[in-house]
Amino acid sequence: MHSFINKLLFFLSSFFTKGHPRTLKAKRQVIYSFALQALSIAVGLLYVPLLIDYLDVERYGIWLTLTSIVGWFSVFDVGLGNGLRNKLCEAIALGNTKLAKEYVSTTYGIIVLIFCFVLIIFYSINPVLNWSSILNTVSVPSNELSLLSLIVFTFFFLQFIFKIIGNILMAHQLIAINNLFGPLGNIISIIIIYLITLFTKGQFVLLGFILSAAPLIVLIIATVILFHGRFRDLKPNIKFIRRAHINQLMGLGIKFFAIQISALVMFSLSNFIIIQFLGGEQVSLYNIAFKYFQLPVMIYSIIISPVWSAVTDAFVLKEYGWLKQTLKYLNQLSLLFVVIVLLMLLFSNYVYSLWLGERVSIPLNLSISMALYAIINITLSPFSSFINGLGKLSLSVRIIFFKVVLFIPFAIYLINTNLGASGVMFATCLFNGINFPIFYLQVKKIISGKAEGIWNK
Question: In the chain, where are the structural domains located?
Answer without folding.
Answer: 21-456
